[in-house]
Structures are given as C-alpha cells and as structure tokens.
Amino acid sequence: MTQPADTAPETISGGHLVAKALKAEGIDVIFTLCGGHIIDIYDGCVDEGIEVVDVRHEQVAAHAADGYARITGKPGCAVVTAGPGTTDAVTGVANAFRAESPMLLIGGQGALSQHKMGSLQDLPHVDMMTPITKFAATVPSTERVADIVSMAFRECYHGAPGPSFLEIPRDVLDASVPISKARVPEAGRYRASVRQAGDPEAVERLADLLAHAEKPCVLLGSQVWTTRGTDDAIDFVRALNVPAYMNGSARGTLPPGDPHHFQLSRRYAFTNADLIIIVGTPFDFRMGYGKRLSPSATVVQIDLDYRTVGKNRDIDLGIVGDAGLILAAATQAASGRVENGATRRKEWLEELRAVETAAYEKRLPRQLSGAQPIDPYRLVHEINEFLTEDTIYIGDGGDIVTFSGQVVQPKSPGHWMDPGPLGTLGVGVAFAMAAKYAKPDKEVLCLFGDGAFSLTGWDFETMVRFNLPFIGVIGNNSSMNQIRYGQAAKYGENRGRVGNTLGDVRYDEFARMLGGHGEEVRDPADIRPALERARESGKPALINVWVDPDVYAPGTMNQTMYK
Asked: How high is the pLDDT of residue 563?
C-alpha cells in the first residue's frame, strides 16, 4: 500500500547535501565551471545562500579557491565537472599543495551504475589526485555525501594545511534519500582545534638560546600568516630585539620602516648571525636547501609539519606546532629572565641597517631611472610607492615578479600573495578574484608578466561580469624572460630566443574589449598617473607597461638551474 503523500519522509538530494556541508564549514562562495555532472550542487548552493562564481577555465577555479583560503583563513572550494574539468584543475590543486593552502576540489564522475563502462569523461580522478592532496576519495552513496565532505575538510588541517579532493558520481549526486538516513555533521562539531603550542621543554631551550645570542635573526615564513600568528610574531621581535626577515605570505607582518623590518640584508644576516630561527619555511630551493645559513650558527626550525623540520639540513632545535603560539611562549619564557639579550643587540641591528641602507642606495638610481624601454626596477618602485595600507599585492610572473620581491613591501599583514614554491604562473587573475570577493573593501593590485597573464587572462572577463575591480599591471617584454636568460647563458645569445618569445600584445586593448579599463605606458613618468586613473576607474583594469627585455633580475641570474 502506498504511503500517503503528507506522511512521506522528507528527502534530500546529494547536491543539496554537498551544499549543507559547505555551509556548515562556513563556505559562502564556490568557484566553478559548469558541467552536467555537478549541476545539482548549484541547486543546493542557491537554497543555502552560497554564491556561485563561474569562471572560464577550471585552473582559475582551483586557484581562486586557494586564494580565498589564503585571504580569509577559511578553506576555499572549487567545483568542476568530470574528466577534463578535473584535469584542468590539477595545476591549481598542486599549487595549493606546495603552498600549504586548505581547499576542497569537488569533481564530478560518471554514474556508479556505469563504472568501468566507458561513461562520458570517466577518468581515475582519485588516483591522479592522491599524490597532490592530503585526502582524496570517491563518495560511495548519497547518504554519505555530507559526511565525507566534512571529512575532506577535516583532513585539510592535518599537520600543515593543504587541499583535499572528492569525486561524486552523477547518480550519487542526483539521487534523493530520506534526510533521516543522511549523516549531516553539525557546524563546529566535527573538527578539533589544530593549534599546537609545541614542546614546553623545547620552547624553554629556545628562550635560553635567545637570552645568550649576540646576533640572532628570524625568518618569518608563510605559516605565520596561515596560523594568524602575526601579533605574536611582532611581539617576539620587538620584545627580544630580533631583526626579522619575511617571505611568502608573511610579508607585511611588520610594516615598512619598522626598526625590526629587514629585507635586503638577509644574506649578510644568514652569514654572520650566531642564532637563526626559521619559522614556517622549509629548507627548499628558496633557502638553498639550507646551505645559505652559516655552518657555525645555531639553527632553530619551527613548523606545523614534523616532516619538514630538519629536512635537507641539520638543525640544533626543532619545534613542531603553531607559529604564533610557539613565538608567544618563547617571548614569555625569555622576557621573564633577568637578562634576555635584547639590550645588547642594539649594535647588531645597527650593523644590519647599515648593510640594508647601502644595498638600497646602490639600487635607487635604477628605481628612479628614466630609461626607455622602462627599467623593471622603476616599474616595481612606482608600484611600491602607490600601495596603501589596504592594498593587497599579488605577484604573477617570473622575472618581473622577481624584481618586485626586492622592492615591493606590503604595508599590512596578509596583503602579499604569490604562487608559492610550485612557481605556478597564471594565478594572478584568480587570486585577484578571490581577494576582491572576500575583501571587497580592499584594493587589489596584481603585477603580471605578459607570459603569466596569457595563461589565464580570459578570466579578466569574469572580473568584469562579477564587478570585481582590481588594478592589473603587466610588465610587458614580449618574452618569457626568466627562461630566456637561462637559455642564453647556457647555449649562447644566438640560441637565446628559442621557444620563449611572445608577440607584442596590446593588453590594454584587450581589457577595454572586455569592458574594463586599459592603458598603455612607455614613459616611466606615466606609470603613476596611469595607476591613479586605474584606481579611479572603479573597473577591472590593465596597465600595459613596456619594460626593457634585455634587463634581468638578480634573482633570475643567480638561479642554480641555469648553472
């Protein structure tokens, strides 16, 4: 006998269960490119009040989810279809993996009822994603959808954060089940705190090392921002009078001009310090695999991931845990001592400041150069002078962004974004999209190489469509110049133009064609006025700046891959 309609159990579809799980995690936007396998998720998002931002390439969706996580401190989410939709997103997931950025990629999949039958866009997604995620799985039944989504978010925060991946077969996603049979985790009740304060004995040992150090320095890495340990890091360097260098997302921890903020004397400090504290940065290629640190210095490494501590280089002390909590504990432990070493380090800071000043003054003529084509140092100098305390700066490129790393100093914490150690080009528009969506009151400025912009630049139209104004600056040398330098250095100038030369593209016209603001700049005196007009336009903007193709950043010329 059929059950009367008014007493039938309330049912819910798999797509709506996804949306409920996203809402429980605090997700307020998904970045996506549509496909038949995933549309029920959109329907659920509409009911749950989750914005659907549809882009033109799945790589952009994944990069935007990564960028959203970096800006907000919450995990990002991208949703793509099966097969090529998921493979297009692989680069964005891989970038988040190397950058320790928590995000969830949801991919479609053919129906379970058609498993191994050759359904449309069927691929072994989980097998492909497993090496570049912290968790990858197939959702086996509609009842488990929300449960496994929450599981994937939980796994994002195991140790150092990172991405997770789920594929959801089409019949699992589209089917409806009684709500009473579906496990729907409740917000705030399926994840524990991940903040680890570190071994107390190790923290005491660090305090002792600081008390006796004559010439300490600290490198604040991306995990300082990831853990939102900015205030604790500031208290640490100021209370104990320790010079600080910053890389990755930690740039901006200290404002420019702060007496403990250093940028250009890092090599000198690493060579001459007696105590070097590395916080939230692995000994990877950016650190010369640890070889750039003085062999006679005492080295301390603090990291969220046990596997990173002591990797590639021996250390004297390793502490696993939350950067902010550990720095706060070390500050308290050292400050309670009769002599914590802070006073006697005055001369050390003066020594480093002299090195810093000399390096700045040596480079200043190029930063003020009136040369045409424009010296890249002049371009990044103008950008640095243009930034406000509310400007989020994004670097997306090779050689031109290497220039900016020496000059551009964000004025607030969390206001620097770059790809991270994977070195992925094409993140710029996606990061700008995420930053402007998450922080609409912030100004967003992105410096692109022309090669980098070309990879994902069509999503400039998405910025126009969603009314997400930002200031894009393209350092245009019609080349993949970082690679060009290496080829010329290895094979000679006569083979320096093989496979790396681009057309002279008017990106300013491209911007105007898509409904944005566009300008071309050839005279360095016109850079600042063009930046001002882009700011005033209230539109997505591209300023196409023609820079000298025969000038290379020192960082480009020093890369070991070319030697």
From this structure: 58
Q: Within 10 Å of residue 114's Cβ, how many Cβ atoms?
A: 15
Specify whether the CB–CB gap between 396 and 427 falls below 8 A: yes
Output the pLDDT for position 191: 86
Cis bond leading into 373, ω under 30°?
A: yes
Helix (H) or strand (E) holding 469: none
CA 536 vs. chain centroid, Å, equals 27
Q: What distance in Å separates the CA atoms of residue 291 and residue 312, rounded to the nearest whole number?
A: 9
411-414, long-range: CB < 8 A, 24+ apart: 411/252, 411/255, 411/256, 411/387, 412/252, 412/255, 413/225, 413/230, 413/252, 413/253, 414/70, 414/71, 414/225, 414/230, 414/249, 414/252
Tally Cβ neighbours within 10 Å of residue 218. 27
CA angle 552, 375, 506 (to 5 degrees): 95
Tokens of 385: 């002078």
Task: Look at the block and give the residue holding tokens 């991919």.
Answer: 107
Q: Which residue, 404, 495, 388, is CA-closest to 452?
A: 404
Q: Distance between CA 342 and CA 346 in Å, rounded?
A: 8
Q: How far apart are CA 510 and CA 543, in angstroms?
A: 11
- Asked if 423 and 480 count as a contact pair (C-beta separation under 8 A), the reply is no
For residue 46, how many other CB atoms are within 10 A of its CB? 13
Contacts of 384 (CB under 8 A, 6+ apart): 407, 408, 409
* CB within 8 Å of 517: residues ≥ 6 apart: 511, 533, 534, 537, 539, 540, 541, 542
| The residue count for the chain | 563
Q: What is the pLDDT of residues 106-156, one digit of tens each?
A: 999 988 777 776 777 788 899 999 999 999 999 999 999 999 999 999 999
Report the run of H or E that residue 106 belongs to, with start and end. strand 103-109
Spatial CB neighbours of 208, under 8 Å, sequence gap ≥ 6: none
**Rounded to an integer, what distance in angstroms lies between the CA atom of residue 375 and that of residue 547?**
6
